[in-house]
Structures are given as C-alpha cells and as structure tokens.
Write a structure and sequence with these properties.
single chain, mainly alpha, 0% strand
C-alpha cells in the first residue's frame, strides 16, 4: 500500500476530476436543485480548492462544513437543499476576493527569530520544556 493510500482520505488532496464535478452540477441544474449562478459558485469553489491544493477537509472547513459535505457538494450527492452551502461558498468567495488584494511578503527571519528557533530546536532535541519571555 502506498503512503498516499495509508493516509487519512480526508487529508488527501481533492482528486475528483473536473468532468465529474461538471456532470454533477449539470444534473443538479437540470433537476432544479441549483440555478446557473449557484452552479458557477460551486464550480469556482472546486477550482479554487484544486488550484490551492486543498484537502477535502480544508475545503469543508473553508465553508464551515465537514469533509463529507464538501465531497457531496462536488459530486452532487448532498441530499438536502443546497441554499445554505451555496451561501457559505459565496461568503468564502467574498472573503478570498478581499484577501486577494493583500501582498504576500513571506516570512522574514529576524535575529530574534533565530534565537527562538535555536531554543525551540534544543528543547525538541533534548525533550525538555523551555520558557521564552521578553518584549514582543
């Protein structure tokens, strides 16, 4: 068994093919469970999750739902009204759009960080507790 198969399925990257999601969304629209706008929102969420290498668990958390609910959204097998889930996706999308304007500068290593890193590594290696205190 490969390492990926041994891993918790909720922690694996979303592996549903796009055509499976498209077929599910088309079926939901044809059945009147989703309108075109809701389909576009769910498709955006799927594409966002794929693009950002989210796990199914992370996708669920992003919309305050479980991993199985996120999976059911993408496969069209939720079994209840999609209104609340689509609203959650829309809220998440709005939040991501607002965050998109921020610049990501990455982590900046400082002299203080180097000291904290050394102390933490020593504590980990020696299996001992340490205290770090001082000005923030």
């Amino acid at each position: 068994m490969s390492e990926e198969q041994q891993q918790d399925p909720k922690q694996q990257k979303i592996s549903l093919p796009g055509d499976t999601v498209t077929q599910a969304l088309n079926r939901l629209v044809a059945n009147g469970e989703l309108d075109e706008e809701a389909r576009a929102d769910v498709w955006w969420f799927y594409a966002y999750a794929q693009e950002n290498n989210m796990t199914i668990e992370e996708a669920g958390r992003a919309i305050n739902a479980s991993a199985s609910t996120a999976h059911r959204i993408f496969t069209g097998t939720y079994g209840a009204k999609y209104d609340a889930l689509v609203d959650a996706i829309r809220k998440f999308r709005t939040l991501q759009a607002a965050r998109g304007n921020r610049k990501k500068i990455g982590f900046i290593e400082t002299g203080i960080w180097a000291k904290i890193d050394a102390v933490c590594r020593h504590a980990l290696h020696e299996q001992i507790p340490v205290f770090i205190f001082g000005d923030s």
